């Protein structure tokens, strides 16, 4: 039976328990294209992928697929880390970060957007109907309303109660975060071989009002290069931004790293520079343009959902700790 060390070796990766190994950059990805394909973060990615797959399977565009997939957890009031029902900031206000990027390098995001469920769709409108790549705060809301989105109260009863409990225990002090927080990042390749990605989140619970994480920052929470591959991030955004995580991973894949080895190297950079890395989670997910997927996290427990013509599966990401 394979033990963990052998399993890591079988993937061409050195063991990663206490030391931080050099990554092994393996040979160029094989040419056995797996497409279409969609991958997304966490177990709720299975439901997101199902909607994305309908579009991919019908020959649709990866951009439409990732938007459709990201909208699934956004609309789910029981998902407390994305869209409707997301845990609020320290003032009890739900604010969303989202971005989207297509095969031509077009991209855009909304930051700290309030009162609109489908932040990812607002981000797409920024890309397609404005001259900008980023719109934040009240301006993002104003833009969304001008595009026909409707205002809704995003704070569900369950999230309001969770906030009130936090408030009574923490005296309004935004705390050092290590609460469960599960952004969806979703990456797809369509039948034409084009890549797109999207990312959407309510961000860290109890954050400072106006705080922006990595998810809407192109290159940090998401990056897509049609010639190479795509990557996205979940976890503590501040740590992802500091290493420009997703762009780093795409550039490593450009140099020949497998998606998994590239994700591992990004995690390693965080661990090298951020001494408290044992106290938080960051996970990266990537695909290359041949449809190979890989992931790597700081902590155990990260999973991603993968859907191809063979079906859907939840894959356990490897981790540093
Ligand atoms: C953030 N990266 O706002 C997001 C939160 C997250 O899994 O990913 N949670 O920092």
Commentary on this structure:
- This protein is an alpha+beta fold and 321 residues long.
- The chain has a single domain (24-319), classed as Glutamine Phosphoribosylpyrophosphate, subunit 1, domain 1, CATH 3.60.20.
- 31% of the residues lie in helices and 22% in strands.
- The strands form 2 sheets. The protein has an 8-stranded mixed beta sheet, with helices on one face. It has a 5-stranded mixed beta sheet with strand order 7-8-9-10-13.
- The radius of gyration is 19 Å and the shape is globular.
- The chain starts with a helix and ends with a strand.
- Residues 1-21 and 23-31 have low confidence and may be disordered.
- The structure holds N-hydroxy-L-asparagine.
- N-hydroxy-L-asparagine (SD4) binds at residues 81, 97, 181-183, 201, 203-204, 213-215, 234-237.
Ordered list of secondary-structure elements with their pairings:
Elements: H1 4-10, E1 37-41, H2 45-57, H3 62-75, E2 96-101, E3 107-113, H4 119-129, E4 134-136, H5 137-146, H6 157-170, E5 184-189, E6 195-201, E7 222-225, E8 229-235, H7 237-242, H8 245-254, H9 259-273, E9 282-288, E10 293-297, E11 303-308, E12 311-316, E13 318-319
Parallel strand pairs: 3-4, 10-13
Antiparallel strand pairs: 1-5, 1-11, 2-3, 2-6, 5-6, 7-8, 8-9, 9-10, 11-12
The structure holds N-hydroxy-L-asparagine.
Give a quick precis of the structure.
With 321 residues, the protein is α+β, with helices and mostly antiparallel strands. The chain has 9 helices and 13 strands.
Write out the strand line-up for the largest beta sheet, numbering strands in chain order: 4-3-2-6-5-1-11-12
- The CATH topology corresponds to Glutamine Phosphoribosylpyrophosphate, subunit 1, domain 1
SS elements, strand count: 13
Number of helices: 9
Computed over alpha carbons, the radius of gyration is 19 Å
* Low-confidence runs: 1-21, 23-31
Top CATH class:
Alpha Beta
Instruction: Write the element-wise H/E pattern from the N-terminal end onward.
Output: HEHHEEHEHHEEEEHHHEEEEE
Structural class of the helix and strand makeup?
alpha+beta
């Amino acid at each position: 039976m394979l033990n963990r060390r052998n399993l890591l070796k079988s993937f061409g990766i050195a063991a990663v328990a206490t030391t931080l190994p050099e990554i092994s950059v393996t040979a160029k990805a094989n040419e056995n294209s797996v497409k279409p394909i969609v991958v997304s973060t966490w177990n709720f990615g299975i439901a997101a992928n199902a909607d994305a797959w309908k579009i991919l399977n019908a020959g649709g565009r990866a951009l439409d697929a990732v938007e459709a997939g990201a909208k699934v957890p956004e609309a789910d009031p029981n998902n407390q880390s994305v869209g409707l029902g997301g845990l609020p900031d320290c003032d009890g206000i739900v604010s969303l970060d989202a971005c989207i990027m297509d095969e031509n390098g077009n991209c855009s995001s909304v930051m700290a957007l309030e009162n609109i469920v489908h932040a990812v769709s607002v981000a797409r409108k920024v890309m397609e109907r404005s001259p900008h790549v980023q719109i934040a705060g009240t301006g993002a809301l104003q833009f969304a309303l001008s595009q026909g989105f409707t205002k809704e109260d995003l704070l569900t009863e369950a999230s309001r109660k969770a906030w009130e409990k936090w408030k009574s225990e923490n005296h309004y002090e935004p705390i050092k975060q290590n609460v469960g927080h599960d952004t969806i990042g979703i990456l797809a390749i369509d039948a034409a071989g084009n890549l797109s990605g999207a990312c959407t989140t309510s961000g860290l619970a109890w954050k400072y009002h106006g705080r922006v994480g990595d998810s809407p920052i192109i290159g940090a929470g998401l990056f897509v290069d049609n010639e190479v591959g795509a990557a996205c991030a979940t976890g503590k955004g501040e740590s992802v931004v500091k290493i420009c995580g997703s762009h780093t991973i795409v550039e490593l894949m450009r140099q020949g790293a497998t998606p998994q080895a590239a994700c591992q190297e990004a995690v390693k950079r965080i661990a090298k520079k951020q001494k408290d890395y044992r106290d938080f989670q960051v996970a990266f997910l990537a695909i290359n343009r041949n449809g190979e997927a890989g992931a790597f996290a700081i902590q155990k427990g990260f999973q991603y959902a993968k859907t191809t013509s063979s079906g859907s599966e939840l894959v356990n990401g490897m981790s540093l700790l």
